């Protein structure tokens, strides 16, 4: 009984040490009001246990939903096809290129991501389909709210804090967290230009973006 009571005191003490890191991310030149902004914190003075999760990026109405998926390293992401047509999901990201091949409505395929990085995801049949996977070496991340505000609950220590969007270079600051701390960051999306991408064969989209042996054509 005493042991259980003491354990409870230890847990309460650990919880009491948590501090809020909060602030605002100003985004300059944002032309897409619904674009996603992520803030994440890497602990740089102590190791942090991995916390992989299972997430999903669905294919629906020829769109990736959600457009941005953020997971810690070693997480698994499912790619279910909710459309009534075929899709072929792929990424040519150097960190972990993958090609899930053609699969039909109702099917789903999965990938486990062992390397942190930003992964652009496409469909080899539908060039308008683009998504982003952000795989992080930390479990501490949050999406800003519609006003650009964020809050992370962290243990005291030193952190490298990053604000990220797919349309900007990341903004990085280091902070020593001893108690509740405010840290504001800024991103510049004014120079973002969306360029056309190639299919999985490195070619322009056209006849080469479907499998002629199966006969599934773009729809």
Provide a descriptive summary of the structure in words.
This protein is mostly beta strands. The protein has two domains: 83 residues, Carboxypeptidase-like, regulatory domain (Immunoglobulin-like, Sandwich); 88 residues, Cupredoxins -  blue copper proteins (Immunoglobulin-like, Sandwich), CATH 2.60.40.420. It is built from one helix and 18 strands. The strands form five sheets. Strands 6-12-11-8-9 form a five-stranded mixed β-sheet, with no helix packed on it. A hairpin with a 6-residue loop joins strand 8 and strand 9. The longest helix is centred in the first third of the chain and has 15 residues. The chain is globular, with a radius of gyration of 21 Å. The termini are far apart.
Summarize the structure.
By secondary structure, the chain is mainly β. Helices cover 7% and strands 44% of the residues.
CATH level-1 class of the largest domain: Mainly Beta
Question: What proportion of the residues is helical, as a percent range?
Answer: under 10%
Order of strands in the sheet with most strands: 6-12-11-8-9
Reported by name, the CATH topology of the largest domain is Immunoglobulin-like
Q: What sort of overall outline do the alpha carbons produce when their principal axes are compared? A: globular
Overall number of strands: 18
- CATH architecture term of the largest domain: Sandwich
Helix-strand sequence = HEEEEEEEEEEEEEEEEEE
Strand content: 35-45%
Summary tags:
single chain; 219 residues; mainly beta; Immunoglobulin-like; 2 domains; 5-stranded mixed beta sheet; 4-stranded mixed beta sheet; disordered N terminus
């Amino acid at each position: 009984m005493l042991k259980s009571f003491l354990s409870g005191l230890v847990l309460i003490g650990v919880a009491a040490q948590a501090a809020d890191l909060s602030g605002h991310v100003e985004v300059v030149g944002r032309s897409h009001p619904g674009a996603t902004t992520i803030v994440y914190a890497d602990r740089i003075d102590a190791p942090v246990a991995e916390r992989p999760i299972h997430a999903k990026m669905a294919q629906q109405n020829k769109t990736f939903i959600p457009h941005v998926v953020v997971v810690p390293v070693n997480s698994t992401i499912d790619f279910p096809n909710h459309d009534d047509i075929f899709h072929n999901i792929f990424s040519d990201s150097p960190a972990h290129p993958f090609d899930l091949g053609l699969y039909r409505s109702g099917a789903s395929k999965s990938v486990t991501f062992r390397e942190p990085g930003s992964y652009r995801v496409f469909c080899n049949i539908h060039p308008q389909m683009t998504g982003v996977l952000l795989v992080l070496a930390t479990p501490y991340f949050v999406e800003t709210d519609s006003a650009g505000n964020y809050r992370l609950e962290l243990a005291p220590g030193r952190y490298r804090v990053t604000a990220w969007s797919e349309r900007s270079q990341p903004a990085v600051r280091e902070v020593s967290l001893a108690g509740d701390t405010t840290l504001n960051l800024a991103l510049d999306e004014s120079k973002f230009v969306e360029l056309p991408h190639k299919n999985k064969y490195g070619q322009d989209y056209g006849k080469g973006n479907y499998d002629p042996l199966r006969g599934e054509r773009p729809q």
